Amino acid sequence: DAGITQSPRHKVTETGTPVTLRCHQTENHRYMYWYRQDPGHGLRLIHYSYGVKDTDKGEVSDGYSVSRSKTEDFLLTLESATSSQTSVYFCAISESTGANEKLFFGSGTQLSVL
Amino acid sequence: EDQVTQSPEALRLQEGESSSLNCSYTVSGLRGLFWYRQDPGKGPEFLFTLYSAGEEKEKERLKATLTKKESFLHITAPKPEDSATYLCAVQASGGYQKVTFGTGTKLQVIP
Questions:
Q1: How far apart are CA B104 and CA A75, in angstroms?
Q2: Distance (Å) from the alpha carbon of A111 to chain B's nearest alpha carbon
Q3: A38-54 residue pLDDT tens
Q4: What are phi and psi of B27, to 5 degrees?
Q5: How far apart are the C-alpha atoms of A8 and B15, rounded to whole Å?
Q6: Closest Cα in chain A, distance from residue B82 (Å)
Q7: Residue of A40, A48, A106 lying closest to B97 (CB–CB)
Q8: Neighbours of B15 (CB within 10 A)
C-alpha cells in the first residue's frame, strides 16, 4: 500500500467553523491532490500541488484553501464550513504526470457539517 | 466538457458468472483512461491505464479494453472478493491535472 495517511478519519463540525484535514505521505511523490466524493458525482478535484508551496485550483475549489510547506504534507482547509461541504475527502498522490499518471489514494476523511 | 458515464450503476452476479462493465467517455483528446477499484470505506485502488484504441490489459480475472468512445471491464468467472465499486476515469491531453471520474459501477458477486 502507498504510504498515505489522512487525518482525521471522521469529523463532525458545525456550520461556520474552520476545519483542516491533513494528508501525509511517505513516498516522496511530487504531486498531491485533494478530491471529494459525493453520491451521484464522480470524484471531483478540489486543489492539487505540484511541489512545495506550489498549488493550484481544481474544479470545485470555492470555499477551500490548501497549503504545502513540506513535500510530505498537504493540508486542506475549509475556512468556514457549510453543509454543502459534507462529503468524503480523499487525498491522492502521484509520482509524475507522464507515463505513470496513476493516482494512489488515502483511506479518506468522512466530514459531516451540521 | 469531458464526461464519463458508467453503466450499469449496480450489477449483481453469481459466482462464476462472467460479465462486463461499460465506461462511455467524451474527452477533448484522450491522454489516458483509468480503471480503479474501490472497497467500502477505502480509497480507490488503481487497476489499469489504457492509452489508445485497441489496447487491452489483464489482471487476474479482469480485462480492460478500449475503443475511441468507450472502455469495457470484463470480469471472467468472478469471485465474491471481486465485489467492489469499479471507477472509470479519463485524463484529457490538455492538462495533466484534469482527470474526470465516472460515478462507478457497484458490483456484488454472490457465492
A1: 27
A2: 13
A3: 998 989 999 999 899 99
A4: -150, 145
A5: 37
A6: 18
A7: A48
A8: 12
- DSSP 8-state code for residue A52: T
Provide the pairing of β-strand B10-14 with B105-110. parallel
Q: What is d(CA A65, CA B102) in angstroms, rounded to the nearest whole number?
A: 25
The candidate with the shortest Cα–Cα distance to A20, out of A89, A114, A107, A92, is: A89
In 3D, which of B65, B7, B32, B93 has the Cα closest to residue A103? B32
The position carrying cell 474526470 is: B100
**Test mutation, A101, A107, A109, A110, chain B, max B CBs within 10 A:** A101
Residue B84 carries which side chain, given as an amino acid letter? A
Of A42, A104, A106, the CB nearest to B46: A104
Residue A85 burial by Cβ neighbours in a 10 Å radius (0-12, 13-18, 19+)? buried
Helix/strand/coil (H/E/C) assignment for every residue in chain B: CCEEEEECCEEEEECCCCEEEEEEEECCCEEEEEEEEECCCCCCEEEEEECCCCCEEEECCEEEEECCCEEEEEECCCCHHHCEEEEEEEEECCCCCCEEECCCEEEEEEC
Mean of pLDDT values over B9-27: 97
pLDDT tens digits along A60-105: 999 999 999 999 999 999 999 999 999 999 999 987 765 457 899 9
